[in-house]
histidine kinase (Agaribacter marinus), 451 residues
Amino acid sequence: MNRRLLWYLVLLTSMSVVSFFSLINYVSSEAESEMSLLSEESKNTLKQWGQVAESYYSSQDVMGLEQWLAELQYKHSVWAAVVEHQTKQIAGGQEGGEYYRGYNLGRNIDWQIHLYFHENPIMELPFSEGNTSFLIRLPDNMRPGSYWQTTKVILQLVFPLVFLSVLSLIIYRHIMRPLLLLKRATSDFSAGNFDVRVSNKMQSEHEEFRQLATTFDGMATRIGEQLVAQRQLIGDFSHELRTPLTRLDIAIENLCNTQTDEVSLSRITKETHIIRHLVEDTLTFAWLENEHKRMGDESYDVVDLLDSIIDDARFEFPTHIVNTLLPNDCVVENSNHRALGPAIENIVRNALKYSPTGSTVEVSVKKTLTNIAIEVCDQGKGVETHQLEAIFQPFFRLDNARRPNSDSFGMGLALAKRQILSIGGTVYAQNRAARNTQVTGLIVTIHLPLR
């Protein structure tokens, strides 16, 4: 890999930053120079004052000049004076007197004013005769650069922040464009579109992204082939296994009708039923686990569904008591009763199976504005705290004290959880002792959204 993207980003960033800050330095310097000059209005005012002072001086009206200067100083809170230039040579040659002409006692009004000095400078306006000048300390209202600090902050802080933000946005969009293509492709792949590919959409991108796209395509091809093969295997397994089981059921039924060894045949019948139940639950769980589909295409009343399930449970377990606490109705939308029904049936049957004879299983429904909670409480021995989540794992079985018979393969609660997840719900278990009740047992709670 030649890291072209790295060098591209390094070149883009370094050249942009260096060029920008060079421009900022140039603009700052020019702005400071321009803002250091007196405005034309201030220049004209100073010139007018110099002309007035010169007029008093030319007419030799010293008293008038003193009075005018006093008024000027008081009105503008400045120092002002009229000064004659006198040069006295102490030693040296007598020629070259022209070198002593034109020296300054103050600053010319066309010169720049230093923006960082705290005191205002003395401005000089020479009279026409050349040996006298009007001097005045620059009034505060004429001091240039009043907005220089604000301008400096804008140029050296605000503009760099804006520029670097824009540069970061450009780099971000440049990098995110191919990444967004990969994100969409990944989402499509997760949704089941195993034919999605991105290499053909990144031909114009940098080599690093093209290599990433090629790697993604290779991964998508391999995983897609594996998932398709797995689906085919599950389908074939389901078809091939159910057929001989059906024939076995028929053969056993025929043998029972001929009154042969009924004990053995009954045992065979029981085992075949267990195998069929195990196979069907396993295949259903595998399908739900692989597809990850949201089964939400209908509306139904949960109370009606529970009434049907509880009637079947009472018939199947006549030695137990099933109490219910249900509202008059509880309609859920965007759900699927074919997923919820078997899940609740598994949980209720599990509660009855693990509760002692004559005990009570309670089924209740609590409804809020947004969801419902279905609780199934048994009176068994409960579950160890560290096993409360494990009981929802496939093929997980408790010890013999909790397991009354051997026809359980640990798929009931695992399948129930996956079915509930497929309609957007959640399920969890807790011991009744956790609620400080006097009765032992397990509480399984299902939460479902109403819509």
Summary: The domain at 192-292 is CATH 1.10.287 (Helix Hairpins). Residues 207-257 form the longest helix (51 residues).
